[in-house]
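Students often ask why we bother encoding 3D structure as a string. The short answer is that it lets us treat folding as translation between two languages. Here is a chain of 315 residues written in the first language.
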Amino acid sequence: VQIQEVERLIDAVRRTEAAARSALTVALAAALLPRLEGASGPLAPPTAMEAKDVLFALREWLPAEARAHADERLLRWLLVDWAGRAGGDHSGPKIVRAIGAAAAPALAEGLRQVDASAALVLAQLLREVGGGPDRDLGAGALIERVREREGLAREPAYQALAAVGSPLGRTFLLAVARAGAEGGRVLALLALAKDPEVASVSELAALAGDTRGPGAVREAAFTALEAIDSPATADALAAIIARDAEEKVRYRAVEALVGCCKVAGVARLLAALPAGYSYRRLDVSDFIEHDIKELGVAVLPVLRRALASPSWIAR
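And here it is in the second language, the structure alphabet:
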């Protein structure tokens, strides 16, 4: 590690007979691990970074117990300063993915301390490798930090909450979206757009369809709905198209319906367009036909069937 001969070392280990290799890798790991512990300050010295890389490179040849011990020490070391330590030949995300589900508890705990940029990365990794309980723990840690006076700022915290993919995080974001300052509600809804979940549809639709709600909140709710490809989303958006008296809102619902549900969404919106309203030709072209044309030839069967619709606007 000190004389920059890591590749030669790994090649030598690779060529070593299997019967002798375990004892060799255990001894090498025992010699390298203290270099991690000796790294002081927020940024790791080069030899510690290189020791981290070698430990990971040796990982596949370590016996199970020694590997688990090295994994635990590597994770602990990385999480002291993720931004400063997750680089190198073997990145922090690569190490976490290799460790798998066993890394999830450390990631959830790490969300209590890392900075905003690292929080999003750790949350995404936790979603990849963690089960429901660990993801809930991670979401709980983020919620606590949002509520602290000097805690994590709302926008990165909300984005990380969405990235974790926990029902606990979704419930919190929906609660924020329902009430409070407009800016916070919008941030929560835009975060929910990154965590599309059918269970959120009814509450998102209520916000999008709230005629007394702030315009920015309604727009953000449509953005979140647009991400959820589900018959439930189609039902909710079709209902808004059919009943909302404001043209701008109806056309935004049309855009969201085509965006979320593609060809199936076109069938729903053509059936939902109110025949009792008047329509400006340019609006129909810009806000309905344009979105439908974006789907290409796949939508032709739906359009042919619509020619027989009793609704003049659908035809």
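Translate back mentally: The radius of gyration is 26 Å. Keep this in mind for the problem set.
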